[in-house]
Design brief:
The chain contains eleven helices and 13 strands. By secondary structure, the protein is α/β, with parallel strands linked by helices. It has a domain of 178 residues: Rossmann fold (3-Layer(aba) Sandwich). The strands form four sheets. A seven-stranded parallel beta sheet has the order 3-2-1-4-5-6-11, with helices on both faces.
């Protein structure tokens, strides 16, 4: 089965850029809606990529974007339910509802949907509950759907390991909320490969896949690894449950949301899975990849930084 025209909602984001690169390399025509072409300019020069400045939350616009497509990939998601902005309900529930309606109206059968490990309509956090609600909508859509549930995703421009690297650089002591929460980090390129390999495979219709790396870590173990990789060894003080909640509440008040109470509630559910990685992909180990972009003194790290700088310059 050939799918030659694909609309990737969230294609300018962290995971989306990797998926778009893979699809473009395979000769697939990709339409990528974005709020700002300037912010997504790295994709402009890719062959067969149509970057469209558009508001995907507008049902009429979404219907136009999906017209003539063979498949739609929905990657849209937010980590914080900020007031005055499109939060969990609008992004995780209402947008998938509109995507499904647009697919139906345009006769688009194939839908790939990004969810999250631990998604549950009855989960402890708004993030997990709305992700679970979206899965229910997709499953009831009668489209040829596939759902992916990754654990925390790492890569050169992730907002997880890089956040802790920045905190370690500027904090003489790191006070860590929920230090015993468990994660199974997965490399962004492995996630992208799973999406692309499933796209035209009818055996994936109506199935959900957990996407996890090869090893489970506590949050404390992950931060200690980041400290080792960056050379910023600091005392790490794990907070108990009460202090973790209070820290999340305090950080929630900052203009830049480092953590919220909803994140705290999400970490009550371990982001791990016993499912093997699908499609014959051997997931990359965090220890093999993260030092390349977190470390600053190795030849590989310097090469990586130079390569990223060259790519950004080319996209200008």
């Amino acid at each position: 089965m050939e799918l030659n025209n694909v609309c990737v909602i969230g294609g300018a984001g962290f995971v989306g850029r990797h998926i778009v690169h893979l699809l473009s390399a395979q000769g697939v025509a990709v339409r990528v809606p974005t709020r700002s072409r300037e912010r997504a300019k790295a994709l402009i020069l890719l062959p067969a990529v149509d970057l469209v400045e558009a508001d995907v939350h507008d049902a009429g616009t979404l219907a136009q974007l999906t017209r003539g497509m063979d498949a739609v990939i929905n990657l849209a998601g937010v980590l914080h339910d900020a007031r005055g902005k499109r939060g969990f309900e609008q992004t995780h529930v209402e947008l998938p509802r509109k995507v499904i309606a647009a697919c139906r109206s345009n006769g688009v059968r194939r839908l790939l949907h990004m969810s999250a490990l631990g998604a549950d309509a009855n989960g402890p956090s708004g993030y997990l509950r709305t992700k679970g609600a979206a899965e229910a909508l997709v499953c009831a859509s009668r489209l040829d759907w596939t759902i992916f549930r990754p654990s925390v995703i790492f890569g050169s421009d992730d907002r997880f390991l890089n956040l802790f690297a920045a905190l370690l650089r500027f904090s003489p002591v790191l006070f860590l909320a929920s230090p015993n929460s468990r994660f199974q980090p997965v490399f962004v390129e492995d996630v992208a490969a799973a999406f692309v390999r499933s796209l035209a495979d009818p055996a994936c219709y109506g199935k959900s896949y957990d996407l996890c790396g090869p090893r489970v870590y506590t949050l404390r173990e992950l931060v200690e690894l980041v400290a080792k990789m960056t050379g910023c060894r600091r005392p790490i003080v794990g907070l108990n449950d009460t202090l973790s909640y209070l820290q999340a509440f305090a950080l929630e008040l900052l203009p830049v949301k480092l953590m919220t109470r909803d994140n705290y509630y999400s970490m009550k559910v371990d982001s791990v899975s016993a499912q093997p990685f699908p499609f014959g992909i051997t997931p990359a180990a965090l220890e093999a990849v993260a030092p390349v972009y977190l470390g600053t003194g190795t030849p590989r790290a310097r090469y990586y930084a130079f390569r990223d700088h060259a790519r950004r310059a080319k996209g200008r």
